[in-house]
Design brief:
The protein is an alpha/beta fold. It has four domains: 7-11 and 17-128 and 182-286, Ribonuclease Z/Hydroxyacylglutathione hydrolase-like (Metallo-beta-lactamase, Chain A, 4-Layer Sandwich), CATH 3.60.15.10; 129-178; 291-354, no CATH class; 357-471, Serine Threonine Protein Phosphatase 5, Tetratricopeptide repeat, CATH 1.25.40.10. 48% of the residues lie in helices and 15% in strands. The chain contains 19 helices and 17 strands. Strands 1-2-3-4-5-6-7-8 form an eight-stranded mixed sheet. A five-stranded mixed sheet has the order 9-10-11-12-14. Helix 8 (288-310) packs across helix 12 (339-354). The longest helix has 23 residues, at 288-310. The radius of gyration is 25 Å and the shape is globular. Residues 4-21 have low confidence and may be disordered.
Length: 475
Amino acid sequence: MKATRWLVILVSLLLVGSGVAAETVAGLPLHVQRLNPATVRVWIGDYVSSTATVAIATEKGIVVVDTVGIPKVDAQLRSVIARELKRDDFKILINTHEHPDHTGGNSVYADCKIVANELLAAGMARTIEDRQRVMDWYTAREPEVKLRLSKEPAGSPAAMKLQEEQVFNRLNFDALQTNAKVALPTTTFADRMTMKVGDTTFELYYIGGMHSASDTAVFVPEHGLLMTGDTMADVWLTDTPGCLESFVARKGVRHDFPMLLENWNLLLAKKAQIKQLVTGHWNGELTMKGFEDRVRYVSALWEGINQGVREGKPLETLQREYRLDTRFPELAKSPGCTVGYNYLTILEMWGVVTGQASGANRLYTLMDEGASEDSIRQLLASRDSKPAKYYFLEDQMNAYGYRFLQEDKVPQAVRMFKLYVELYPDSWNAYDSLGEALLKAGDTAAARKMYEKSVSLKPDSKSGLEALEKLRAFP
């Protein structure tokens, strides 16, 4: 039986209260929001989830938080900020994290001190390495948008949304194509940093791990302003939340959960001083309750998994005990929180605490590389080692098998599903999945046997019964 899509892959209306977008920048509506007498927030677009740049005027100059990531646009927004604040003495740029939609315009502020977490530069380097893949994505997306636009009535909300995406995608593609020199941070910090800029204080807190490795929160006590980057939001203002739509510990992203929680709790201790929470993109908002709920959630997971490991609980048990819908009902239907993201966050925390990696993922890699049977057997034998190097989950075995099928690598899929059956001989789903792979491989006799075994374990299996009905047509 097919696994849910998120698991198989494992692998982005206007702002209420904002000013009317009477101007345009690079062909997109300009929005200027006055957060307080000394602070403006600027962004482009009525629909696209662009980064919102925040600029704060101090006695010693203007401090900017994040760029839109498109130098051509950021240069124009710098002029808009200067006009709105009636000064142009830009002194500091703060990056809340490494992603290009926040750092791609750093070169526009190369005359300023650029401040960020110490991990940000490495993240920017990885982004540069990924440049061609992103350009290929924009190239493939362009005809898709054009086709969809041709089917929408002119002037309709859907058409305007697609037209805006066309312009925004082209701006991003052109920025990538120019391959302009990046401007890296000139001042970095590890856990926390406080900067006094004239009459204004900027407190920087490392909060990496639930979005990027270098996430930083910026608190300005004089204005009661807390900027949280792209880490979280609990209100969507459009149906395209973009970077704010996921609250999850991702595979491959560095985690320091103790430091993350320490800094989040330090910020929560300042709750009485926080008047406004500001997210990194204009079309998402964060309430204090949403912030508190998410901090409690990560804390509960981290403490629970550490305790569970000490008590010798298996990973499967912890996945059941910390289901999002039953353990955290306040988040179950909250933006950015899903059962799938919860599953992945638990896996990441388990890996940090135990040092174990996914056995199914390793099997997938070995098979994809054409590894020998001996290599496969050595990996499976390692399950009995103390401490174990890998963990094995039934749903992951199923998911990686279907990943092979989706990639049209049928022999590898059959091989993976056979190991699934071997590891979980009492699972009706293991035989059902192997039956499907064998059927795709053209081995109807073997497929029939697998489906029969599956149905014997689960007599009401719809997929198994339907497959056997179709197989009756074969000799």
